Amino acid sequence: MPVDPSDRAGDELLQRVVDELRHPVQLDDSVDAAALERIRRAGLPSHAPWRFRLLAGLAGAALAAGLLLAVLIRAPESQPGPRGSRAVRLKLVAPASSRVVVVGDFNNWDPAATPLRGREGVWTVELRLKPGRYHYTFLVDGRKWVRDPAEPPAPESDFGTPTSVLTVS
Amino acid sequence: MRRDRWYVLLALLALSPVLLRAQDRRLSDRLDPATATSVQQLIDSARALKLPTEPLVQKALEGSTMGASGDRIRMAVEALFGQLGRAREALGTGASEAELTAGAGALRAGLAPASLAELHRLRYRQSLAVPIAVLADLVAEGVPAAQATREVFQLAREGRPDDEFVALRRRVQSQKGGDPGSAEPLQRPAAAPAADPPSEAR
After folding, report:
1. What is the chain A residue with the closest CA to B99?
2. What is the rounded CA–CA span in Å between residue B105 and residue B15?
3. pTM confidence score
4. Within an 8 Å CB–CB cutoff, is residue A142 touching chain B?
5. Lower CB density within 10 Å: C or N end of chain B?
6. Residue A129: is its pLDDT beyond 90?
């Protein structure tokens, strides 16, 4: 197949261009130095550092708050009780009862706060109390007040209900 | 105008602790409004006198749980308020909340303020809460006040730790065996070495 002379000339031109592009360009070292100097003088955008710091600070604060929250939420499970508290076990023998709760100075006299666990008629609960003097009584089956026979009776009976006094040292 | 708003805001912030404690939610939740208000006034008075307020709150809540009338609750709180004040007169202004609460119980049990003052003197710079509580417990158990006082004072004089006061009460309880009027001398175990004076002052 005959070759078109104009094609051959085009190929030669293309080959020269490619050869030229493949040839490495050697710049003077001063050009590199000047370019770097210009970049250094221009610097980074002025608002970047303080925004970055602000965001980093906020992120750090959020992380710290999250960790603190996690610790606080887990605290009731992981801590045994108030600082300096002691474990106190209350017990009431009430074989014919279906529910026993204790109310006292340690739970705002709230009948829903501290139920006892019953096993074969022996009802027990373990509290953690700081040293002090506590008045309390048991409520049996939601209707009968029974004071703890294991502790002294309260000297006063302001409301006509038998109560005991517990001293935690 | 804008500055005035800042002043109001700052004043509210400064007063917020006072405002927050002005109403105890436990009282307003559990007592009728009139009783809650009168009890709150007693509590405010106690706070102004730097007396412990939590025992007063608990006394009111006890009355509420027991179904007592508002008048009865107020009277009980008022009586406890007075006992706390007398306990502080006997124990001094440095007495802790636990000591004052125990002292009020002791006075309620029939002990004389002079007994508290003497215990304070014997156990100077040591906590009095447990010895006073034990003293009150012994009397409540039926031990004559003079005998209970003598036993507790002896332990205090010897510098015994709190646990020994509690042990004394346990022994009395086990010895009594349902004889509240017993005036027999309280049996004590062989003398244990006296405890080191506690490092913390009251």
Report:
1. A132
2. 34
3. 0.66
4. no
5. N
6. yes
